[in-house]
Amino acid sequence: MRVTAPDEPVLFCPCDCTNDAVFGGSTADRGVAPVIAVTLLVALAVVLVTTVSAFVLTNQSDIPPPAPQISVSHTTVPDGGERTVAVTLDAGDTVATDQLYVIASKPLDIGGAPSSATPANEAYASSRENFVEASGANPPQVGIGEQWESGETIYLDPRGSVQGVTIKIYWNTKPIRGVNPGSVEGDDAYLIAEFSV
């Protein structure tokens, strides 16, 4: 029988059989099981990290940019025998005009001031108007350039009376294509201003 030191754990059978019989093999085979276990754990960790990173990186590209924050005011201005709605960007982010469009509770047209060369005109009203609407090779009717900045005004002429019209301004993550009414691409359009006249 083997004699052990007092602090050494006893790892043998009390019936005096050999350690090889108890643990099923020689001392040289004992290191194989831990190596296999470590290899399997490392392989599992690699698979998990690959799966999680692929999921996270794929979904990050689908997150749309945040919508601009704006504050607008509106009033009505004379337009011959009618009134046109003047909408001014009072505060907030500068917004690319090719990503903006407006809809209302009834068809309307977007354009410049009633006294300008390209006024809003209800004869051209549609269900959706984009801010860069233009005829032919002319610049956009609203006359505010590529960015809608604080202090700039657009004009909206709804069909018939302006009283009781609800107007909504939307920002899209992609530019609006075409004119009158144009086509909105993508699924990410955000309402950034709404008011009733």
Show the helix and strand layout.
Blueprint: H1 19-23, H2 32-60, E1 70-79, E2 82-92, E3 95-96, E4 100-111, E5 126-130, E6 147-148, E7 153-158, E8 166-172, E9 189-196
Antiparallel strand pairs: 1-2, 2-7, 3-6, 4-5, 4-7, 4-8, 8-9
Percent in helix: 10-25%
**Low-pLDDT runs:** none
**Category from helices, strands and their pairing:** alpha+beta
What is the approximate shape?
rod-shaped
Number of domains: 2
**Record field, number of beta strands:** 9
Please give the alpha-carbon distance between the first and last residues.
102 Å
Strand residue content? 25-35%
**Helix-strand topology string:** HHEEEEEEEEE
Report the sheet with the most strands, covering strand number, pairing sense and barrel closure.
7 strands, antiparallel
| Number of distinct helices | 2
Let me know the average pLDDT. Answer: 82
- Rg, Å, rounded: 36 Å
